[in-house]
Design brief:
- 78% of the residues lie in helices and 1% in strands.
- It is an all-alpha fold.
- The chain has a single domain, classed as Sodium/glucose cotransporter (Up-down Bundle).
- Strands 1-2 form a two-stranded antiparallel ribbon.
- The longest helix is centred in the last third of the chain and has 49 residues.
- The protein is globular, with a radius of gyration of 23 Å.
Length: 504
């Protein structure tokens, strides 16, 4: 077991007890499935905007991107650009129309046009797959941060976080999850501003001078390589193949508007206009965050090249932000930043488990299987499902030890963009979409993205059959092509049948 830090443990316990207090208080308001899944649709747009930011700004954003920028420069920052740019798609195409037709889950939105159990089942399975791929890096982040924070081994840290999140979700569902995410969004924004100010103050430079200094320097990297600053701040440090770069960018930009745990947040506000306002608030918060995250990664590599030891852990890039905080402000700042990172993981995992529980309990059990339990039993099934998903997340987090969390999240975005986005956009905006087109498009997008991940360097290393690390550039067009192609073919077949009947 690692060394226990009393100050860190105290702050950790304060955040934990506060979170549990919110959950216990919020549980009193949960009486129906609507309260459990979407907080009764009564969340105010400003609160929801910060909650969206709190949900979206995950371990990948705070821990993963900081580490990737420190290790790979511009190629790491592309994650921040992609994560933010994706919200333009959500704002202009998805937010308002989705709120107008949705109820509890992503599948509810798709089946508003076609009352189809096949569509609901396909959408529920896709929700589960995307959520699990997204859950893995969050649990990896939890193990990475809780160990150094309070002296627990990685595996124990994953279990502690997992059980705490299960307790939060199983008590009050979206009501408590919303407030945990709202508070987390505020804390994370304050943390990244404070840490950026600390980096610039310690370096003795302004923001533009600081970036210029990095570009003009010769940098020693954590992997032992030496490169010029302009190379470090140009594409190619991590993704040498330009197609890999484009594939990742496509996945990040298009995947945002198709993440199930983000989409369900639009169902928590009273009306469609509130969904748009929530998105604007979220974009402002995240814009500030992702701009400043660049300074954290560059700050780490800057001080590393000044001979500062302990500001970068070559074995775990996910610890870059907390280690930087320790250098800037000592043990107190380290404990605060690490505890906020812990709260970040809590909020995101809570949202993911909510989306997964809705897919199983509401979509599959109630709608697909035709079970119609009363409100009390429906709540019990939903909470039981949340517990099961949480336990699966714990196991997967332990198995994925050592992976970079931002990289893993990029794969979840690719799957969402390939399977969910074509179905969602065609349902909302294309009148010729058919039931069979949506179902086959979801299945094709899922199959293509997962297959390409399995045969990519991510899984097979140097023996990979598919050369790109992210499948988006291939699997996203497959999802759209199959959805639209099958719909067109089915439409033509229907027209031919009608013509034959008329002629007959």
């Amino acid at each position: 077991m690692a060394e226990i830090h009393p100050l860190s443990l105290a702050i950790f316990m304060i955040i934990t007890l506060a979170t549990l207090g919110i959950s216990i208080y919020a549980a009193r308001r949960v009486r129906t499935a609507g309260h459990y899944y979407v907080a009764g649709g009564g969340v105010r747009w400003f609160v929801n905007g910060f909650a969206i930011a709190g949900d979206y700004l995950s371990a990948a954003s705070f821990l993963g991107i900081t580490g990737l920028v420190a290790f790979y420069g511009y190629d790491g920052f592309i994650y921040a650009i992609g994560f933010l740019a994706g919200w333009i798609v959500a704002l202009f195409l998805v937010a308002e129309p989705l709120r107008a037709i949705g109820k509890y889950t992503f599948a509810d939105a798709l089946t508003s046009k076609f009352k189809s159990r096949k569509i609901r089942l396909a959408a529920a399975i896709s929700t589960l797959v995307v959520s699990i791929f997204y859950l893995i890096p969050q649990m990896v982040g939890s193990g990475s941060i809780v160990g150094p924070l309070i002296g627990l081994d990685y595996e124990v840290g994953v279990i502690v976080i997992g059980l705490l999140v299960i307790l939060i979700v199983a008590t009050a569902g979206m009501v408590s999850t919303t407030w945990v995410q709202f508070i987390k969004g505020f804390l994370l924004l304050i943390a990244v501003i404070a840490l950026t100010v600390g980096v610039l103050a310690a370096s003795g430079m302004g923001p533009f001078e600081f970036i210029g200094n990095i570009i003009d320097s010769t940098l020693n990297l954590p992997n032992g390589k030496v490169v010029s600053g302009d190379v470090f701040m140009s594409p190619g440090m991590k993704y040498t193949n330009p197609l890999d770069f484009v594939s990742l960018a496509l996945a990040l930009i298009l995947g945002t508007a198709a993440l199930p745990h983000i989409l369900i947040r639009y169902f928590t506000v009273p009306k469609p206009a509130d969904a748009r306002r929530s998105t604007v608030v979220a974009i402002i918060v995240m814009g500030v965050f992702y701009l400043l995250i660049l300074f954290l990664g560059l700050g780490a590599i800057f001080f590393f090249n000044q001979g500062v030891t302990g500001v970068i852990n070559p074995a775990d890039a996910n610890l870059t932000a907390p280690l930087l905080a320790q250098y800037i402000g000592g043990d107190v700042f380290y404990a605060i930043i690490s505890s906020i990172a812990f709260a970040t993981i809590l909020g995101t995992v809570s949202g993911l488990i909510m989306a997964s529980a809705g897919a199983i309990a509401h979509d599959i059990y109630t709608e697909v299987l035709g079970k119609k339990p009363d409100e009390k039993r429906s709540l019990m099934i939903s909470k039981g499902t949340a517990v099961g998903v949480g336990l699966i997340a714990i196991m997967l987090g332990i198995l994925a030890k050592g992976q970079n969390v931002a990289f893993l999240v990029g794969l979840a975005f690719a799957i969402a963009a390939s399977a969910n986005l074509p179905a969602l956009l065609c349902t909302l905006f294309w009148k010729r979409t058919t039931e069979k087109g949506i179902v086959t498009g979801i299945v094709a997008g899922l199959a293509a993205s997962i297959l390409l991940i399995v045969i990519s360097p991510t899984m097979m290393g140097p023996d990979a059959i598919f050369s790109l690390n992210n499948p988006g550039i291939v699997s996203i067009p497959v999802g759209f092509a199959v959805t639209m192609g099958v719909s067109l073919l089915e439409g033509r077949a229907d027209n031919s049948s009608k013509a034959e009947k008329t002629a007959g």
